[in-house]
Design brief:
The protein has helices at about 5, 80-90; strands at about 35-40, 45-55, 55-65, 70-75, 75-80. With about 100 residues, the chain is an alpha+beta fold. It has one domain (about 20-90). A hairpin with a 6-residue loop joins strand 1 and strand 2 (about 45-55). The N and C termini lie far apart (about 30 Å).
Length: about 100
């Protein structure tokens, strides 16, 4: 069994040609209670999370290369828009 076969969470697909570039910014604690509802595998250097709270949602990206992890988030959006963006990131159509 290979390391990828042991992973339980999805991996982001290779970037497609001309992907949508998301705007990533420093975390903004505008929602008091947020919970990740989906995430990519932690075996990769970059981990993505779909976070929902208070009827709104956003994506969180954590780059864990060296030292302190670098965390960035998208702006708040509707849950349906965030789910569509999540699908686009997973399929390599957005980054």
């Amino acid at each position: 069994m290979t390391a990828v076969e042991e992973c339980l969470s999805p991996h982001v697909a290779m970037l497609q040609r001309d992907p949508v570039r998301l705007v990533w910014r420093a975390p903004c604690r505008s929602l008091l209670r947020v919970r990740p509802v989906a995430w990519t595998c932690f075996c990769r250097a970059t981990v993505y999370e779909l976070c929902i709270g208070g009827g709104r949602a956003f994506l969180r990206r954590t780059v864990q290369l060296r030292g302190t992890p670098q965390v960035h988030e998208t702006a708040l959006m509707s849950i349906s828009q965030a789910q569509a963006t999540w699908t686009a990131v997973l399929s390599g159509r957005a980054c």
